[in-house]
Design goal:
mainly alpha; single chain
Length: about 170
């Protein structure tokens, strides 16, 4: 995954006023409870401690938090528009997708099927996954009931948030 142009040093993040720290974290995932919990838990002694805390110590996202956060995510296989930090992070996450041959059409069809089934964008941590893995996961998840799928979406959001955090902060 592409590194942010200028990741913030952890010691600088630890010292930011709460409002600035919250604004810095928002592109990772726009969930106030996640952001507020991380800001309140500072200082962190290492990036590992920060990312581990972010992954493990905030309870699962609520359905409302998931819906709000999904509003900022493009469909898998589509480039996030704009010049925001969040758009840059999203483009970096999807940069490794190989959309050759019929892969783009297959992703479009998978996105449509998912959106028809669950009435929301299909979200998956794309970083480190091949297009074939993503398509297989979408197909598998189409068999989920709403409750289990919502749990998986929340977990994917959390994984994306932590990857973005690691891309934005350095020891």
């Amino acid at each position: 995954m592409k590194r942010a142009d200028h990741p913030m040093r952890l010691d600088v993040f630890n010292e930011l006023p709460a409002g600035e720290a919250a604004n810095f974290l928002r592109p990772c995932v726009d969930v106030d409870r996640w952001i507020d919990t991380l800001v309140s838990a500072r200082p962190f002694h290492s990036l590992h401690a920060l990312s581990s805390f972010a992954l493990q110590h905030v309870p699962a996202f609520s359905p409302g938090e998931i819906s709000a956060a999904l509003a900022h995510h493009p469909r898998i296989g589509e480039r996030a528009p704009g010049a925001s930090r969040e758009a840059d992070l999203s483009r970096g996450e999807q940069a490794s997708l190989k959309l050759e041959g019929d892969a783009f059409e297959r992703l479009e069809a998978a996105n449509r099927a998912y959106e028809q089934r669950f009435n929301r964008v299909f979200l998956i941590r794309a970083a480190g996954r091949s297009t074939e893995e993503i398509l297989a996961e979408c197909e598998r998840r189409l068999g989920n009931d709403e409750e289990n799928e919502l749990r998986e979406v929340g977990e994917q959001l959390r994984q994306i948030a932590v990857l973005r955090l690691k891309d934005s902060v350095q020891d």
